[in-house]
Amino acid sequence: MEILKRIALIAHWVGFISAILFGLLFIGFALWPSPSNTFSIADGGIETHQRVLGLLLSMLAFFSCSGLGWMVRFILMGKVHFLPWRTLNH
Questions:
Q1: Tens of pLDDT along 30-62?
Q2: What is the distance, to the nearest Å, from the Cα of residue 79 to the centroid of all Cα atoms in its chain?
Q3: Phi, psi for residue 85 in degrees, rounded to 5
Q4: How far, in Å, CA of 23 to CA of 55, rounded?
Q5: Are the C-beta atoms of 18 and 79 separated by less than 8 Å?
């Protein structure tokens, strides 16, 4: 049973770390300055919509990856905290 607990914790940490990396990646793409030959905010706000979409995708990526890691640990171990370093007080 101890090995199953460790595997579940590793899956939770992998999901959490990948959530951070994907979230930062999408935030970086959303905030990265665009080249001068693309649409600007004055040309209809297409760039602004793309930045907002990138920020929304970063939140979606973070919560989906972290949620999947948590769900694997929840299925294998039962009731656990969403953050991998926290434990629930029973």
A1: 887 766 555 555 555 557 777 888 889 899 999
A2: 21
A3: -90, -5
A4: 8
A5: no
